[in-house]
Every structure is written in structure tokens, then in C-alpha cells.
TrEMBL record:
Source organism of the structure: Aquirufa aurantiipilula
Family from the record: Belongs to the ABC-2 integral membrane protein family.
Compartment(s): Cell inner membrane; Cell membrane
ABC transmembrane type-2 domain span: 35-259
InterPro entries linked: ABC2_TM, ABC2_TM_bact-type, ABC_2_transport
Domain of life: Bacteria
Keywords: Cell inner membrane, Cell membrane, Membrane, Transmembrane, Transmembrane helix, Transport
Matching Pfam families: ABC2_membrane
Name used for this protein in its record: Transport permease protein
PANTHER family: INNER MEMBRANE TRANSPORT PERMEASE, TRANSPORT PERMEASE PROTEIN
Length: 267
């Protein structure tokens, strides 16, 4: 725990650099784009429309586990886009900023932490779209929406932990970069993004599913914070997700710290 406190203290002491890098990433992301922040709206909405067509027109499914299909799908996509984009940004952050790292010393973790900024901005824009969608469907917003920052924090810890692990090894082993898109692609379907855990809860292997994929509990946590009277988040799901996020984050910090000194040799 002393290592975690030390690293977080280093980041806190250089918070101004963290803000500068975050602003730079946001500026670069939308610079010279015609739609700008609108891309944060287009992508999740387009994905939702594709699945709505598949569910309603092809499979003739009108709701998911008794909840409005539009809200279940869009809230899942909103969660997944934040996690997946954060994971990819963190994993690639050291290589993307190789010139900066090789020229001047500063806590390398700052680069990884600042890379979440773009994903956070996209999430906030998508959240506004979700609220408009819910109101247009005459659906109430969950009374637990004030806990959404907590769900976001837990997800961020998980993304940071895995992202730091991938970032640590991708500097020397560039093959690691090829693994991340596969995780994002297959993880989308392995996690209840366009379906719910209710459809899996009666399976004998459901507990192991939650242990092996803590993201299942996290996405249900997001839905509980957004969809009114959503009751599919269980204490078991929640505890597994929180524990996994903390453990993965700590492991990521430890691995990153051990490999940090060798970054310059391979950049």
C-alpha cells in the first residue's frame, strides 16, 4: 500500500501537468474534425440503432428483461465505450508519448492517468444523450443516479489497472498492442452490454462468469444508476466488481513501477 500511496502522491504533486496533458489529448482528438464532439453522440447512437433493428425487426424482441430495450442497450454501450476507450488509450499512452518520455523526466503514471480524459468527455456527452432519450420515452431517471460517479470511479480503476499492465509490456513486446482490440471486440459480446445478467443468472456457472468477467457487475451498476427501478444488480455482482477493480488497479501499479525504468531502453 505504501507504493500506491507514493505513486498517487507523485501524481497529486504534478496535477498541473496532468491537466495540461488531458487538455492536449482532448484538443488533439477533435482537432480538424468536422463533427467534433458530435462523434461522441454519433457512435453510440448508431450502435444502438443497429441492435434495435436486429432485436425488433429481426428477432421481434420488444424489451429486455422487462426494461425498455433502448435504455438497456444505450446504457450498456455508454458503459462499454467508456471502458474500452479508456483501456485502449491507457495501454497505448506510453508508446504514443515516447518522444516526451525520452526527453524529460516526470512521473510516467501521469501520462496514463491523463489519457482517460477523452473517454470521460465522450461519456459525459453520451450521458446527456441518454437523459434525453429516457425523457423522450417517458421513462423516469433512476433515483440512484447520484451514485453514477462511484460506478464511473470503479470502472476507471479497472481500466487503469489493465491499461497499466498492457502499457508496461507493450513498450518491449509490441505484440501486446494486437491483443487489446481483440479484448475490446470479444469482450463486448461476452459482457452483458446488449443483454442483461438476468438472462444468465439461472445458469450453474453464473458465479464463475461474474468472477472471470467483473465487467458484468459494473455494467449492471451503471444501469442501476440510470434506469428507474432496475433491480438486476446484486450484492454479489457489486462486491466482485469492486474487489476486482481494486486488486487489478493495485497489480497494475506494481507491474508498472517494476518496468518503468526500462521504458527508455525500448522507446
Amino acid at each position: 500500500m505504501n507504493l500506491i500511496q507514493q505513486k498517487l502522491k507523485e501524481i497529486g504533486s504534478d496535477w498541473e501537468l496532468l491537466v495540461i496533458l488531458a487538455k492536449r489529448d482532448i484538443s488533439v482528438r477533435y482537432k480538424q474534425t468536422i463533427l467534433g464532439l458530435s462523434w461522441a453522440i454519433v457512435k453510440p447512437v448508431a450502435t444502438m440503432l443497429v441492435f434495435l433493428f436486429a432485436y425488433k425487426q429481426v428477432a421481434k424482441i420488444q424489451d429486455i428483461s422487462g426494461y425498455p430495450i433502448q435504455l438497456v442497450i444505450f446504457s450498456g454501450i455508454l458503459f462499454w465505450n467508456y471502458f474500452a476507450n479508456s483501456l485502449q488509450a491507457i495501454s497505448n499512452s506510453i508508446l504514443v508519448n515516447s518522444n516526451l518520455i525520452s526527453k524529460v523526466y516526470f512521473p510516467r503514471l501521469i501520462i496514463c492517468f491523463s489519457s482517460i480524459a477523452v473517454s470521460l468527455v465522450d461519456f459525459l456527452v453520451g450521458l446527456a444523450v441518454y437523459l434525453i432519450l429516457a425523457l423522450s420515452l417517458h421513462q423516469d431517471i433512476s433515483g440512484y443516479i447520484f451514485l453514477l460517479p462511484v460506478a464511473l470511479f470503479i470502472t476507471s480503476l479497472f481500466a487503469l489497472g489493465f491499461g497499466l499492465i498492457f502499457a508496461s509490456f507493450s513498450v518491449k513486446y509490441r505484440d501486446v498492442q494486437q491483443i487489446i482490440p481483440l479484448i475490446v471486440q470479444y469482450g463486448f459480446f461476452a459482457t452483458p452490454i446488449v443483454y442483461t445478467t438476468k438472462q444468465l443468472s439461472e445458469k450453474s456457472w453464473f458465479l464463475w462468469y461474474n468472477i472471470l468477467n467483473p465487467l458484468a457487475g459494473m455494467v449492471e451498476m451503471f444501469r442501476a444508476c440510470l434506469i428507474s427501478q432496475y433491480d438486476l444488480l446484486t450484492a454479489q455482482n457489486l462486491s466482485i466488481s469492486v474487489l476486482a477493480s481494486v486488486l487489478v488497479f493495485i497489480l497494475g501499479i506494481i507491474i508498472f513501477d517494476k518496468r518503468e525504468d526500462s521504458f527508455v531502453d525500448y522507446l
